[in-house]
Amino acid sequence: MAKAGMEEQSSYDHVLTAEYASLIAMEFGRNPIVNDEAAFDIYPPTTHPDPSTLPLRPPIVTIMGHVDHGKTTLLDKLRSTSVAKGEAGGITQHIGAFSVPVPASSGEAPKTITFLDTPGHAAFSAMRARGASVTDIVVLVVAADDGIMPQTREVLDLIQQEKITAVVAINKIDKPGVDIEKAQNALLAEGVQLEAFGGDIPCVPVSGLTGKGLDDLVETISLIAETQELRAERDGDIQGYVLESKIRKGLGPVATVLLLRGCLKPGAHVICGTHHGKVRTMLDSSDKPVKAAYPGMAVTVTGWKSLPGAGDEVLQGAEANVKKAIANRERKADLEGTMEDLEAINEQRRLERDRREAEEASGASVNNHQVEQEQGPKELRLVVKGDVSGSVEAVVDALQCIGNKEACVKIISSGVGDVTESDVFRAQVAQGTIVAFTVSTPRSVEVLAKQHSVPLISSKVIYSLIDDIRSHVIQLLAPIT
Ligand code: GDP
Hints:
It is found in: Mitochondrion. One of its GO terms (molecular function) is translation initiation factor activity. Residues 347-377 are annotated as: Disordered. Residues 56-229 form the Tr-type G domain. It is a single chain. By secondary structure, the protein is of the alpha/beta class. It has 13 helices and 17 strands. The protein has helices spanning 2-9, 18-27, 71-84, 122-129, 150-161, 180-189, 214-228, 319-361, 368-375, 389-399, 421-429, 443-451, 462-476; strands at 60-65, 97-102, 111-116, 137-143, 165-171, 203-205, 239-248, 252-261, 269-272, 275-278, 282-283, 298-302, 313-316, 378-386, 407-416, 433-437, 456-459. The strands form three sheets. It has a seven-stranded antiparallel beta sheet with strand order 10-9-13-7-8-12-11, covered by helices on one side. A six-stranded mixed beta sheet has the order 2-3-1-4-5-6, sandwiched between helices. Strands 15-14-16-17 form a four-stranded parallel beta sheet, sandwiched between helices. Helix 2 (18-27) packs parallel to helix 8 (319-361), helix 8 packs parallel to helix 11 and helix 11 (421-429) packs parallel to helix 12. Residues 1-12 and 364-373 have low confidence and may be disordered. Bound molecules: guanosine-5'-diphosphate. Guanosine-5'-diphosphate (GDP) binds next to helix 3.
């Protein structure tokens, strides 16, 4: 009997999820912090205890500079050099990065440099916003005939602020009458410590158009990389970043992943944000299958269940762990959304309370609702939920046109997804109605809405929804006497 009683006490109904616990805490005006450490997720592999014993990896280089100073031309020339040198044959796909071979002395292992060719891309802003810089070396391109320009200064600031190793490429030296020294002096005047003047920033004169000086540039980058001791595990679980992602015909969602550590092979289970997949194939920039990808390489990965976002971190784990981590991350994302909703509700309540207190202080005894009703048009306040953002917008646009000077629709909030408990709270506070357009309402939420006398209108057809809302607005009007 006692045992049955215990079971009764600790039945499922009494176990609170992190979400519910947080909701309750917020109801009491507290600011809950969910301790995620206890929850499952996949984290980057731990740092090696002695990185100096790890194998060297290719440097990852980004070319930056003022518009029209020749970044694209330089990248194209470097890419075609790599194609010509047999690194990649035939037509190349743009995958956000390519590698250029570095001439090696006899007996030396062949080396490469990875050039990223989407520096202005969203992936870079996303990575930088998260403090994840994948660039080891920046090549600052300065056109010899144009000198220092606003974006040149921006790059110089970035290099200084983030302490990035830089190489200056003075470009367009094929142009008649260009003065390389003048360009160097201009850089010096900006505080750039060029090697030629006793500093530590190498400066290489090049022509992206003719290819002159590009071998020097590649060699200079390679020498800098040697001093940087860029080392990473070539085995074990991976850590990488998505450079680009898209749906490709016949391949489904694909993402170019730049590897920073580990070894990626087909069959691996990968996770990126709330997206995951089992690597089906890996392709290089010539669309040739790659059997194994290593640090510094960028490969197009197929096998994703959905499209990962550019700039997001890619990790690897056992299938079951990836699934658990996905569920965990989705729950966390939901909770963050709910928290935002709740903060908005709390804010609304605070405002409501402040107004009531102000009214009480001034001796007013009429209730808020009446004041509003007497002062302006009567409002049918709506919380709108829909299946996709396009349909939510369409419903909101259509509904907020309903009404006249005496009675009208007011949209309290709108959003994508099923009706949630916070929608009910929100509608209750605003004395509003919930509109669920082609989305479902969980049974528990329906019950909550009933308990709080929040009307709920579900519809799948926009015209009948408009009719329905119109008749509700008409009901708000005073009867004609
Ligand atoms: P980006 O905006 O920095 O990517 O610059 P582009 O690569 O698009 O080059 C801008 C213009 O400069 C184009 O007309 C190029 O043909 C030209 N250009 C680029 N590099 C060179 C070069 O080394 N020599 C000469 N003469 N023209 C160049």
